[in-house]
Every structure is written in structure tokens, then in C-alpha cells.
Amino acid sequence: MIEVTVKPCICCTSCTADNSPLPRSMRSRAMTTPPGVAPAVLISSTDSRTDVPAEITSSTIRRPFEKKLSFLNLHTGERTHATFWANGRYIPESMRAINYVLRDHRTGDRRSIDPQLFDLLYLLQHKLGSKQEFHVISAYRSPATNAKLAEQSGGVAKNSMHTHGKAIDIRLPGRKLSDIRAAAMSLQMGGVGYYPSSNFVHLDTGNFRYW
Question: Which of 21, 94, 131, 140 could bridge 84 with an S-S bond, Cβ 3.0-4.6 Å?
């Protein structure tokens, strides 16, 4: 287990939740295109006897678009690498795997993390040109844990977005904290908190703001 000592996310005072028909000669050859695959283009053959499908090549078939993320929980040492979105939908099994790693490490409680947070992290990673895993200081925080932290610090909101699975505190190996903050702010997609003394950036899916 990796022992990490960090201050509670005092950002929580700012992250409170609130057709054209086919030619006759080709009609019998019409093909159904599977989801996520570009339709094969039918081209008339030089053979005058019939029309035949063009050869299917890598340029004909479009590779399904995927979104992937990797996380390392600095408190438990657990990590996951998952394709959380593909072919126009979120992948339930992958979401569950990520939710487990991002659970409240103090109580073991878990909650479904807001998918928009994963989308935000995906865009941030590409903005930074990184394929490194996110190091997670805090993600989901149970109400009990949040209440305990609130007693210890006046900067912890009672209705923190962490308790709703809508916030995460991260760092990214190989990237300066200031660069992570700048990239996140340029996306203008949610809350961005900068904590250089604790070495993390807070992100959430609330209204765009920063501190």
C-alpha cells in the first residue's frame, strides 16, 4: 500500500453540488452495416457482366472510436486501465471497474462516478498530450467521511461534489501541476481548483469556475 499524506480537499467550498435507391443491378446485394463500421462502398466493376462490391480494405472500414483512461489510487495502490466509452455508448463493466478504484478508501463505500467527469479527464489528457495514468488523491467521498473531514477543516463543504461522485483530485506524471490547471481551464467544462502545496488539481463537473 502506498502511504500518502495530503490535506483534505478544501476546494469543496467551491465545489458544492447544486436515400437514394440503389441501382436495380445492386438491390439484391444491399448489405446491412454493423454499428460502428463505415458502410462498404459499392463500385461498378470493369467487368460489364455485373456490378460487384469494391474490395474491403482498412480504408473502407472505420475503426470504432474508443475512449480510454487509466487511474492509480495513491491510497490503496490499486490501478485500472479501461475503455469506458466505445461505439457511441459508455461501457458498464468498465465504469464499474473505475468506480471501484475511485471509491472512498476510508470506508470502502462506492458510488457511480458522473460519466461527464470521465469525458473531462479524457479531453484533459489529450489536451496535455499524455498517455500516463492519473494519480488520484480523492474521488468519491462518502457523507460520513466528508462530515469527518469537515470537522477537521472549515474549508470542506457539507455538500461537497465529491459526495455526489462529481469531483476528483488528481496529478499527472510528467506534467507540471500548473500545466494541468491551464489545460483544464482552457476546456471551460467545470470547476478547477489549484493546490500546489498539496500537489494536486481539483476537477468537477459543476459550472465553469476556478480558484
Answer: 94
* Beta carbons of 161 and 205 less than 8 angstroms apart: yes
Q: Which amino acid is at 72?
A: L
Among candidate residues 162, 38, 165, the one with its CA nearest the CA of residue 98? 165
3-state SS, the chain, equals CCCCCCCCCHHHHCCECCCCCCCHHHHHHCCCCCCCCCCCCEECCCCCCCCEECCCCCCCCCCCCEEEEEEEECCCCCEEEEEEEECCEECHHHHHHHHHHCCCCCCCCCCCCCHHHHHHHHHHHHHCCCCCCEEEEECCCCHHHHHHHHHHCCCCCCCEHHHHCCEEEEECCCCCHHHHHHHHHHHCCCEEEEECCCCEEEEECCCCEEC
C-alpha cell recorded at residue 99: 468506480
pLDDT tens readout for residues 169-183: 999 999 999 999 999
Q: Longest Cα pair distance anywhere in the chain, in angstroms?
A: 83
Residue 5 banded pLDDT, cuts 50, 70, 90: very low
Residues 136, 78 contacting (CB under 8 angstroms): no
Taking the complete model, does pTM exceed 0.90, yes or no? Answer: no
Residue 166 near residue 17 (C-beta atoms within 8 A): yes
